[in-house]
Amino acid sequence: MTAASRQSAANLGDNAVTNTATGPLPASVLEALGRYDTPTICNAMEIVAPERRLIGYTTKQLVCPFPDLPPIVGYARTVAIRSVLKSSLPAEEQSKRRIEYYEYVGTGHGPRVSVIQDIDGPDAGYGAFWGEVQSNVHKALGCLGVITDGSIRDIPQWAPGFQALAGSIGPSHAWVHAESFGGEVRVAGMTVKSDDLIHADQHGAIVIPLDIAAKLPEAAELCGRRETPILEIARSPDFSLEKLKAALKRSAEIH
Q1: 118 is in an annotated binding site
Q2: Which CATH number fits domain 55-210: 3.50.30.40, 3.30.70.360, 3.40.50.720, 3.20.20.140?
Q3: Which of 35, 47, 223, 237 has CA atoms 20 to 30 A from the CA of 169?
């Protein structure tokens, strides 16, 4: 079992709400994808789906307070939040909406990754949806981590092993609330729909089309083989420009 799959199993727990529906991909595919960091998956995507070279991944820097955590691979749970304006719903309706949101997060294909867009525009991150409580609740609901352009807080009290990529870190939650969930969101340049397959680590995140997911591990290995002769000479005390040219030629011949 890989580090990523052990992380998944630890996070799912035994609560009934985390019983996951059969995913569209075998667990073995997700485990294989979790063996590679996100930049390597991006490299593999350039081989398998070159038409996606400019789309499908985060293009703006996100804060990662836990860079040593392994990559996470899971199905998206999408949410739109805001914090500058107070919710217009009555208290009873807000409570009902919160339960519906948690039911959405805690069911469906698993494991899951929360993807949250802050729709406050230039004020995105004004209030933090994520902190000690939400990280622990979402971990219990079967999520492996969160990707958001909003803010997070309570870093020392954060749920252990729960990954986070965020637009900023801030102290207050202001009027933060979920405006909607289950729709299309856009976070740091990456457009995500509910149930999209997400791969993420400290570098950022990428959406993996389901029909090519199983091809990416082999492509990732090919990328590694092509890099090996270049890295070997670059790290060698006998490095020379002529040897680099030869290494580049050998790299180009690897298929």
Answers
A1: no
A2: 3.50.30.40
A3: 35
Q: What share of the chain is helix, strand, coil (3-state, %, to 5)?
A: 40, 25, 35
Q: What pLDDT does 1 receive? A: 32
Over the chain (255 residues), what is each successive 10-residue block's mean pLDDT? 37 41 87 97 97 97 97 98 94 94 94 97 96 97 97 98 98 96 98 98 98 98 96 96 96 93
Domain positions in the chain: 55-210, 218-253
Q: What is the pLDDT of residue 13?
A: 39
Task: Provide the token pair at 131.
Answer: 């902190």
Contact 82, 179 (CB under 8 A): yes
Q: Which residues pair with 200 in a beta bridge?
A: 72, 205
35 among annotated binding-site residues = no
Q: 177 to each of 66, 82, 85, 87, how far by Cα in Å?
A: 25, 6, 9, 7
Cis amide linkage into residue 26, ω under 30° from 0: no
Note the Cα 246 to chain centre separation in Å: 38
The Cα-based distances of 202 to 55, 56, 147 in angstroms read 19, 17, 11
Crossing angle of helices 216-234 and 241-252, rounded to 10°: 160
pLDDT of residue 23: 81
